[in-house]
Each structure stands twice: as C-alpha cells, then as structure tokens.
Amino acid sequence: QAGLTVLSVLAVVVGTFIIHHTMQTALAHRQRDLALARAVGYRRGIIWGAIGIEVLTLGALGSVTGALLGVGVARAALDVVTTGIGAIWARVDGPGLAWSPLTFALAIAFGIGSSAIGAAIPAFAAARLEVIDQLRPRGDRPTTRHVPSWMTISAGIALTMVGYLLFYSDLRPAGHTAKITLIMAAIVLVA
C-alpha cells in the first residue's frame, strides 16, 4: 500500500513537470500568434485566460481518460494475478476492485490541478510577452539572456533549505507511508 501511494505521488509530480515542459514548448511555438493577439488589442488577462481554458480542458480530458484507463488496467491486473495464484496454489475467487465515484472524482481533480500547476508559469510568461520584440523578423530581435529574478532565486534557496531540513530533521512520522512521503518530499525539494 505504501509503495503504491509513493508511486502515485511520484507519478503526479512527474506528470506536472511533463505538463510544464509541454506547455512551455507549445507556447514558445505560438509566441508570434500571441504577440499578434496582443497587438490587436487583447489584454494580458485575456491571453492568460485563454491559455488557462486550454489547460483546464486538456487536463480534464487527460484526467478522465487516465482514470478510466487506470480502472481498466487495475481490473486486468487483478485478473492476471488471480489466475496466476490459482494456477500455482489453489483456486481463489478474484477480489473486486475497491473504488468509488469519490475516488474517481479525486483522481480527476488531482489531474486537473496538476495540469493547472504545471502550466501556470508558461502561461504567465506567455501573457507577458513583449509585443514589439515578437513581431520583428527573427534576425532583428534582440538577443537577451534570461536572468532569474531575485524572487526565483529566493524561492529556490528556500525550497532547498526546506528539503534539507525535512531530510535531516528528527521528525518521526508514524507508518511507512508517512516516512516514505517525507523522504520523497525532501528529495524533490532538494532537487
């Protein structure tokens, strides 16, 4: 049970990073289009809202598809395990899959939430594009190197410190799930 919980949390974290990278790449390819929309009068909030609707729609579709596939794969895995146990030892009745509509709704909510979290930074950056720079021909654009702001650097230092504190703290959570989750959180924060 603890291993499945940790793998589930890890899958959500990895999925959030994948969504972040995907949205960053997709919005980078649409920079000129977004700049044109800004040039004809769309405000930053409208651009951010349009990207947000796109992210939430794709997140909802992906979450529903993932939850349905998850239930189907879990049922198939239970059948395979039950058949294997029956072939080796003795016939056993197949256990039922324990899930409820609330579990299904939570899975979808986590999927949509991780989509929104993963896409927030690329959407914010796309809404803040400099219109003039994006509308110039590619050779005429000024080449600027992205320098992290003091807020980004401060947040990175703070998260690293929290990760080290969690890793080396004397917290003694009860149960294996809590211990593994604490270690995973520390590793993710440090990384």
Description:
The relative contact order is 0.14. With 191 residues, the chain is mostly helical. Helix content is 77%, strand content 0%. The mean pLDDT is 78.
Number of helices: 7
Percentage of residues in DSSP E strands: under 5%
Distance, first to last CA = 26 Å
Tell me the series of helices and strands, N- to C-terminal.
HHHHHHH
Which overall shape is indicated by the principal axes computed on the Cα atoms?
flat
Mean pLDDT over the full residue set:
78
Q: Percent range for helical residues?
A: over 70%
**Could you give the count of β-strands?**
0
Low-confidence stretches: none
Main β-sheet: number of strands, strand sense, barrel status? none
Query: Structural class of the secondary structure composition?
Result: mainly alpha
Radius of gyration: 23 Å
Features:
191 residues; single chain; mainly alpha; flat; 0% strand
Ordered list of secondary-structure elements with their pairings:
Elements: H1 2-29, H2 31-39, H3 44-88, H4 101-127, H5 131-135, H6 150-168, H7 176-190
Question: What's the short story on this structure?
Answer:
The chain has 191 residues and is mostly helical. The chain is 77% helix and 0% strand. The mean pLDDT is 78.
